[in-house]
Write a structure and sequence with these properties.
single chain, 150 residues, alpha+beta, Alpha-D-Glucose-1,6-Bisphosphate, Chain A, domain 4, 7-stranded antiparallel β-sheet, 7 strands, globular
Length: 150
């Protein structure tokens, strides 16, 4: 499996971060590439529950995220799958004084592989995954700031 990870620190409380992160109604505003949340299982964000969403037209298609680990105020681990990848995504929240550090990671494997897959992954896919996770965290942080200013 390949792995990418990004982190950002936000001026917020752990409670604010967690509430916003697990509020699937707000995901279209900040999850990179997400167009519509299609279904949220009862019990979200606890283990066993899943969220299914549809990407923008040029995106990943239908994405399913199933919770495999959850620790209140600490983070969550998910099995994630779409037409191109399957893997494990995690988010971790850590207090840093008056700030909260959020680490978003994805371990993935490509479902369609060829002789050139390792090179394509190294040159293009890994960069795109990292950029997508960074965009997600940046938009998430913008939403946190807007909430605090309101």
């Amino acid at each position: 499996m390949r792995a990418v990870s990004v982190s950002q620190t936000f001026e917020a409380t752990i409670g604010e971060v967690e509430r916003r992160w697990y509020d699937t109604a707000d995901w279209p505003r900040w999850v990179d590439g997400l167009d519509t949340v299609l279904a949220v299982d009862r019990g979200w964000p606890r283990p066993g529950a899943a969220v299914t969403w549809q990407s923008v037209p040029a995106g990943r298609g239908r994405v399913t995220e199933r919770v495999i680990g959850y620790e209140p105020l600490r983070g969550q681990a998910l099995e994630v799958s779409d037409d191109s990848i399957r893997g494990r995504q995690s988010v971790a929240f850590a207090p840093a004084g008056d700030l909260v550090n959020v680490v978003l990671s994805l371990e993935y494997e490509l479902l369609r592989r060829s002789v050139v897959s390792p090179v394509v992954d190294l040159l293009f896919i890994r960069r795109a995954m990292t950029a997508s996770l960074s965009a997600t965290l940046s938009r998430f942080g913008a939403g946190l700031r807007a909430d605090r200013q309101a």
